[in-house]
Amino acid sequence: HLFADLLRARLQAEQPGRTQALHRAAAAWYEEHDLADDAVRHALAAGDAAWAARLVERNVETLLGRSEGVTLRRWLSALPAESVRARPRLCLAQAYGAAQGWQLEALEVLLDDAERAFAASGDEPYGDPAGRPVSVLANVPAGIAFLRATLARLRGDAALAAGYNRQALARLGEQDWLMHSQVRWNRAGADWLDGRLGAAERGLAEVLAELRAAGEAVRRIGGEPTEVFRAVEGGAAFFGGFLAMRVCYDLGQVQRARGNLDAALATYRQALDEAEGSSETAHAGLAHVGLAQVLYERDELAAAQDHATRGVTLCRQLAFTPPLAIGLAVVARIRHAQGDTPGAWEAMGEAGQAGLSPQVIALLNPVPSQRVRLLLAKGDVDAAAQWATAAGLSPDDVPDYPREPAYLVLARVLLAQNDPGPALALLERLLDAAASQGRTGSIIEIQALRALALAARGDHAGALGALTEAVTLGCRHGYVRVFADEGAPMRALLAQLPTVRPGQPHAPRGIGPGYLAALLHAC
């Protein structure tokens, strides 16, 4: 590097007029040899922003497919702002980057920019470097509609998301294979928000199977062109890596919501098996985080900690930051369960620095709710109540499913304030909604909290009835921490269940041997 500096200084001193031409020659050589990062750098150094913008546009698909946020941000920030705003596909690429980080405020602005740029420039020729079937930038109107559906979904508006998904589908052509898959994934996500978990699971499983099949086809043809698509690096990353893993992660979350922890475990373990030996190892971080969530619920804390730690380490490499934040929230829960309160707060603080928009609904972002639960655990009820007020939560609300986790925390705040009446009324509304849609995971948690609220109100029989239903369902699916994390009040109630004699109304039928003992131990 010292010799290079010397040569540059001598060039500047003796032949300053050659510098720009040399940078252009270097950019051309790097472009010819598919070394995009160096090509962009030299094109910018040559002062040719238009050439640099074209280079970025032709190579940005690969970065999106790999979730390489650092390089994407560096390229786009190095370009003059007007060069980006004038090119709808660069605006769209920036919007995809914001969507990967769940930066909803920035995403909305960037989509407006993309629409203005497209209206001004029209559908300019695009090289489709990955082949149109595996491109997310070739069809700008469909891409904008897809990302607007994503924005609505992350804000919890399933109806608006469904409308934009229909727009995206209407604008897609037969060749837009990958975009069709993405829109169907988004549509399954809207079903999830609406509480239609069966439809969501089927939709996600279908998209995942299709992506895996396409990824296998990419690997088989080994880079040879076909009539349908070319197996270039960006396409392979989408098929076999990042997108498939994101769909897989969502599938496991829906299976958890249905109460089927075994299915979620199988989903994530299969994903890890498929990722083993892959060059896209960072994507496996999502599966590790998903596994950690399930194992934590089953009180397998050592295994959960191992997967959470590995998941967080891998997810630090991705532009897709939500699993990093969620993984750190799981680390906080594990540390708290192990008695490491300072470590739990450290992990929560880091999770809060991931930059997820506060507009993201509680169903998808557990970080705020988990932070408030830590406040309650240390007895800071006032701070927890202030959060509920600032979030606009009221026990008189009729909460929808996307915001259910926040309202469950509100119920805990009310119980901590010795106000079980409003908590119970709120929980009744949540239970009715969950039961009508068969959301077993929600039913277990709501019934556990109802038991605490009924006990606090003095209804001992009602408390044991609610708890028996929760424990019976929990035993069937292997739930532990949903009870244990409620602490001493829950332990006191659980200790009374074995004393109920068979034949009484609340006898704990269907509860396996040792399960209650395991719950009491975990408490």
Note down, in words, how this protein is organized.
By secondary structure, this protein is mainly alpha-helical. The longest helix has 25 residues, at 197-221. The radius of gyration is 26 Å and the shape is elongated. The model is unreliable at 223-240 (pLDDT under 50). It has helices spanning 2-14, 19-32, 36-45, 49-66, 69-78, 81-85, 88-100, 104-121, 140-154, 158-171, 177-193, 197-221, 233-240, 242-257, 261-275, 284-297, 301-315, 322-337, 341-352, 367-377, 381-390, 404-416, 420-437, 440-456, 460-477, 481-484, 488-494, 515-522. Helices cover 72% and strands 0% of the residues.
Give me a quick take on this structure.
The chain is an all-alpha fold. Helices cover 72% and strands 0% of the residues.
First and last CA, distance: 60 Å
Give the overall pLDDT as a whole number. Answer: 89
**Low-pLDDT segments:** 223-240
Structural class: mainly alpha
Strand-residue fraction?
under 5%
Anisotropy-based shape: elongated
Estimated radius of gyration: 26 Å
Number of strands: 0
What is the tally of helical segments? 28
User: How many strands, which pairing sense, and closed or not: the largest β-sheet?
Assistant: none
Helix content: over 70%
Order of helices and strands: HHHHHHHHHHHHHHHHHHHHHHHHHHHH
